[in-house]
Specification:
The protein has 34 residues and is mainly beta. It contains no helices and two strands. A two-stranded antiparallel ribbon has the order 1-2. β1 and β2 form a beta hairpin. The radius of gyration is 15 Å and the shape is rod-shaped.
């Protein structure tokens, strides 16, 4: 019996350098499975 199964987990954080700049993304987790 599995308590937890995760496939292709992805988590991104968005941040902006200035008010008019396009948002950029930092990949914290990308494609993790357990």
């Amino acid at each position: 019996m599995r308590l937890l199964e995760v496939r292709d987990l992805k988590k991104y954080f968005e941040f902006k350098k200035g008010i008019l700049s396009k948002p950029q993304y930092i990949r914290a987790v990308d494609g993790v499975s357990f």
